[in-house]
């Protein structure tokens, strides 16, 4: 299961996660004097500079949080363009516009389109995934220039697809020849084991938390809520713990890459620690959002293995610190007075008499699993390993089972060298990040078929010995393929 934590004000954008990168920031200034081409080009540079400054000051790259039109702007996906959206570009037009932008640059692109009146700014926004807000429907086309500037700036900063990689054979050859593979994983690699993801509309964990009475279901993972009432978190923690030491075929695939000496690093958003069940070594994993593998006392920092508190978590109970209990037992003869700041003082430190109501009995601290809650810093290891270990070594990136909607994982494809090929494996494609090859379907099915074609033996009880997989092309996408089990 993948997990998200919120920005905490640290300086590195790789350390702070970013929420929902599919929306659009509208912090660009309005149109000023000058031609449309000059105004839009200047605005794209301003937007790019503004984004760089936002990232560098640690406030994150949240496309929604500072939007002037936050509640009105809609993202239009490629699937919608393919089916047809009124007054929008067709999918073919959108793809052509995107390629042209990357080929000739922002200034030339704006001159070629808006400058020559070959397309309206309103329509061109849709080529880059933005459906203009309804309240601008009757506005002159110039009113859409700031929005278009943001859309162009965002698109131009995307990693362009490498044209030489398109087919299943290309993917298999990359697997066979690569020696330093970075694997990014999310909740999709664990769902076949019955572990829910967070955001699926009807089956995700967040959709099942209405009974907790939270204003936002994500508050169940808010560190401030946890400190105030840990019972809220522990009431659902049992539902996201794996009940057995099992692992999926996709976990086995990562282990196989390790056994073949090809796994450079597995960056995982998941907190279930199932990679360990498959035998992936700790030195080959970065737990981007921590895991249940260990837990730490919120009072004394005493640390234990996750196994030590799993029984209590599975009962829905709040695990408490054994070390605190021991200390309290040893000090049981000393009554402590509550001080104004919540700390305790010995009776002898106080002047005068006090009533018994001023005293409290010490309690042990709560054992918090070492997952990164909203409001907590991410591990330093993430940014350090990515920038100083992997970036200069990686020769293939495989993203599996994640929609890349949250950082830090969402940032990885753009941080690694653009010349390194990237493969995406999941049930549905993403439109905000450009991959070289999209392999769509059940993750377990895709990786098992890749291994068959590579001549690798991927052993797992969940892979039928006689399984046959059909691979179908996706219309209008040379590098997108759908995997389906024959007869399923």
From TrEMBL:
Region annotated Disordered sits at 27-64, 333-367
What is any one of the record's Gene Ontology cellular component terms? nucleus
Provide the Deacetylase sirtuin-type domain boundaries. Answer: 161-457
List ligand-binding residues for Zn(2+): 297, 300, 321, 324
Key words of the record = Metal-binding, NAD, Transferase, Zinc
Q: Name one Pfam family in it.
A: SIR2
Skewed-composition ranges (Low complexity): 35-47
- Name the chain's protein: Chromatin regulatory protein sir2
What organism is the protein native to? Aspergillus heteromorphus CBS 117.55
């Amino acid at each position: 299961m993948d997990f998200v934590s919120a920005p905490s004000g640290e300086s590195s954008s790789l350390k702070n996660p970013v929420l929902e990168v599919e929306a659009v920031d509208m912090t660009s200034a309005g149109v000023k004097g000058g031609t449309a081409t000059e105004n839009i080009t200047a605005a794209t540079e301003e937007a790019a500079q503004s984004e760089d400054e936002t990232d560098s000051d640690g406030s994150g790259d949240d496309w929604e949080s500072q939007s002037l039109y936050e509640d009105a702007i809609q993202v239009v996906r490629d699937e919608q363009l393919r089916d047809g959206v009124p007054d929008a570009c067709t999918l073919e037009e959108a793809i052509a516009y995107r390629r042209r932008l990357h080929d000739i640059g922002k200034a030339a692109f704006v001159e070629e389109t808006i400058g020559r009146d070959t397309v309206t700014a309103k329509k061109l926004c849709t080529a880059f995934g933005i459906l203009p807000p309804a309240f601008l429907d009757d506005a002159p086309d110039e009113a859409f220039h700031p929005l278009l500037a943001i859309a162009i700036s965002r698109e131009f900063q995307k990693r362009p697809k490498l044209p030489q990689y398109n087919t299943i054979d290309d993917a298999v050859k990359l697997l066979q020849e690569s020696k330093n593979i970075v694997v990014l994983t999310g909740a999709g690699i664990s769902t076949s084991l019955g572990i829910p993801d967070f955001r699926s509309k009807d089956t995700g964990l967040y959709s099942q938390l209405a009974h907790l009475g939270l204003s936002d279901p994500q508050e169940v993972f808010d560190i401030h809520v946890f400190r105030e009432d840990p019972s809220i978190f522990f009431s659902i923690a049992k539902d996201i713990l794996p009940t057995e030491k099992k692992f999926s075929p996709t976990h086995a695939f990562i282990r196989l890459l390790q056994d073949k000496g090809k796994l450079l690093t597995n960056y995982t958003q998941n907190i279930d620690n199932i990679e360990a069940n498959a035998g992936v070594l700790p030195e080959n994993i970065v737990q981007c959002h921590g895991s249940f593998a260990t837990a730490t006392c919120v009072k004394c920092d005493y640390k234990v293995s996750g196994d030590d508190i799993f029984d209590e978590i599975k009962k829905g109970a709040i695990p408490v610190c054994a070390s605190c209990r021991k200390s309290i037992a040893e000090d049981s003869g000393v009554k402590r007075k509550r001080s104004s700041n919540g700390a305790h003082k010995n009776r002898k430190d106080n002047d005068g008499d006090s009533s018994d109501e001023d005293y409290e009995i010490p309690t042990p601290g709560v054992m918090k699993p070492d997952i990164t809650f909203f409001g907590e810093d991410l591990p330093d290891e993430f940014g350090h390993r990515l920038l100083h270990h992997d970036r200069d070594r990686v020769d293939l990136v495989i993203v599996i089972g994640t929609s890349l909607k949250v950082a830090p994982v969402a940032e990885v494809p753009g941080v690694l060298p653009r010349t390194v090929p990237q493969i995406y494996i999941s049930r549905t494609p993403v439109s905000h990040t450009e991959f070289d090859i999209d392999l769509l379907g059940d993750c377990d099915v895709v990786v098992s078929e890749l291994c068959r074609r590579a001549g690798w033996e991927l052993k797992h009880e969940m892979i039928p010995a006689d399984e046959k997989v059909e691979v179908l092309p996706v219309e209008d996408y040379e590098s997108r393929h759908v995997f389906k089990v024959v007869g399923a």
